[in-house]
Amino acid sequence: MSDPAPAADGEVMVDVHGVHKSFGALEVLRGVDLRVRTGEVTVILGPSGSGKSTLLRTINHLEKVNRGWISIDGELIGYRRSGDKLHELKEKDVLRQRTHIGFVFQNFNLFPHLTVLENLVEAPVSALRRRRKEAEETARRLLERVGLADKTDVYPRQLSGGQQQRVAIARALALEPKVLLFDEPTSALDPELVGEVLDVIKDLAHTGTTMIVVTHEIGFAREVADTVVFMDGGLVVEQGPPAAVLDDPRHERTRAFLSKAL
Amino acid sequence: MTTERRALKIVPARHYTRWAAAVAVTVLVAQFAHGLVTNPVWEWGVFSEYVLSETIVDAVWVTLQLTSYATVLGFVLGTVLAFMRLSRSPLLQTVAWTYIWIFRSIPMIVQLVFWFNLSALYERLGVGIPFGPVFWSVDSNSLIGTMGAAIIGLTLHQAAYAAEIVRGGVVAVDHGQLEAAAALGIPRLRQIRRIVLPQAMRAILPTAGNEIIGLLKGTSVVYVMAIGELFYQVQVIYGRNGRVIPLLLVATAWYVVLTSLLSIAQYYVERYFARGANRTPPPTPIQRARRFVRTLRTAASRRDQPVIPPKRMGDSR
Fold this sequence. Notes:
A: 6-stranded mixed β-sheet; 12 strands; B: mainly alpha; two-stranded antiparallel ribbon; ATPase-coupled polar amino acid-transporter activity (chain A); P-loop_NTPase (chain A); cell membrane (chain A)
């Protein structure tokens, strides 16, 4: 096992190293390596059950890994290293680490009993101890950015699915994370609402936000990704620039998947 | 075709059995009401003499005190027990489970008599080193007193039920909510207080309302400890003057009034916690009544005016 990437490496923001994860007897991740550089957009494609969502969830420690390690900006996630031992971190410290990692869920998971503004203000105030007034200003600015400046005082259920997901993206951005993780952000949406959410993500990509996006939208991958990663059976089958992976795949499984998806 | 259809008259279905049932029920209700007024056994004079008397009002106050203490303390302890049962520590889980098991198994009246006789069990209560010397101690009866014993008894009993009610509410909250809160790095206690409990309240409140109303009437059990709550005082009075029926009526009337107040409070508390659950919250009874009056008024004012064409009605919005 090599050392976790030190901060001096600089360029690498997310470093996933030899990650294994099992649920009981089911091996979902079987040794995944992945490196994402600062400002890069990585899109993960793959059939259902290939482990791509699980991989994303291990990156912010919603799932504990069984083997391997993950670091973000040189900091090990979920563990502290001393010598050749990894000590599990306390929940408090894991929560602190998560404030650097924005996560957008397939089902939005907005807090239904809080208004849109309160959804955005909650974490910065309680986790980062920002002043409420400051947090509200940031929240309004972010809502303007995702095109929902007029929706501050409504409750999530009064919004369409696309609007809810845009609020969820703004909520993740409110913590000013180092990296944003998207877990199939458009899979729960009606087809005509997918575009508005992808537009927001594209806009973020152009402003240099480091992102990992798990999706089935191959058109989006082609347009926005710096790197496309194809996963199958708990392994990274191939990765590279979209032109290489999508148009000239080297592996049979990638080719089979793309021919079905396109 | 259209002209022909317009000419046809719709005849509503005739529900003869329903009408017959309505008539029968009306007669029964009328008979009962008539009996309430005319049957001399109810002794309405005695009822009105006692219902607002000082003794009874004081007794109602004691009943209210017992109910509020047991509700607040019971639900606080119950919430702690609920989260112990949901915690990852097997020890906490087991302790909470055992507590609930035991206190749901003991009839409330048996438990109350136990507390009443606490001094027989522990004559003195004190502070010191566990299993070691005692630094300070006090006579247990003088420490808690009868009222204290009753409150402790009701609270411990209530907590066991409250724990299950709260736990039911918490497990009803979508797991994604906790994941989202964890992903945002919101501190653990804050996750519970700000994200989980407010949403759990929607499932907790209807059952909790039931429990509190049950408790209000359940406080009448403490008459065994000779505490001057409503039912005890009523018994004392009719033991003295023999007017059993009107005095039971006094107690009934007060329990009905208090339960009604609790039900109204429950309606508004539930409404508060339902915010965000519906796209447009339903109007309250008061709002509905106001709207009804407004409709009547506009209807009355329009009666003399010519029919307004539909186009203008659209504009007036």
